[in-house]
Amino acid sequence: MRLLRIHEVTRLTGLSRSSIYKQVRLKNFPDGVKITDRSTAWSSDEVENWISLRLSHRGLVNALELHDCGIREEEKKNEQ
User: Fold this and answer.
1) Taken in order 9, 10, 15, 21, is the CA torsion positive or negative?
2) Crossing angle, helix 6-13 and helix 17-25, to 10 degrees?
3) 35 phi and psi, to 5 degrees?
4) Is the separation of the CB atoms in 40 and 7 below 8 Å?
5) Where does the chain have alpha helices with state H?
6) Which helix or strand (DSSP H or E) is residue 34 part of?
7) What is the CB neighbour count within 10 angstroms for residue 4?
8) pLDDT in tens, 53-80
9) From the CB of residue 18, how many other CB atoms can be counted at a distance below 10 Å?
10) Is the pLDDT of residue 50 over 80?
11) How far apart are CA 72 and CA 75, in angstroms?
């Protein structure tokens, strides 16, 4: 594990600096660790886990959307 500074976190996640801080405030992103009075860093493990969770949710959402489309198609057939 290593500590990532904000520019590394933005590069890894694709989020802007302000989006990262907003998501931290909303409890949707790992809290940073104060390393000095003016510097914050994030655990590389926590950031990577957050990314992995987003990717796994994407697969779940895609599967649910496909399932819903199948149900809607079946409903259309039944209406005819």
Assistant:
1) positive
2) 90
3) -105, -20
4) no
5) 6-13, 17-25, 44-79
6) strand 33-36
7) 21
8) 988 877 666 665 666 665 555 555 666 5
9) 9
10) yes
11) 5
- For residue 4, what are its two tokens? 């990532």
**Which residue in the block uniquely carries the two structure tokens 């199948």?**
70
Side chain identity at 38, as an amino acid letter? R
Report how far residue 38's alpha carbon sits from residue 2's, in angstroms, rounded to the nearest whole number: 19
Under a CB-based contact definition with an 8 Å cutoff, are residues 12 and 47 in contact? yes
Q: Cβ neighbours of residue 47 under 8 Å, at least 6 residues apart?
A: 4, 9, 12, 13, 30
Question: Which backbone phi and psi does 4 adopt, to 5 degrees?
Answer: -105, 135
Return the residue matching tokens 């886990």: 49
pTM for this one? 0.71
State in Å, rounded, how far the first CA of the chain is from the last one: 59
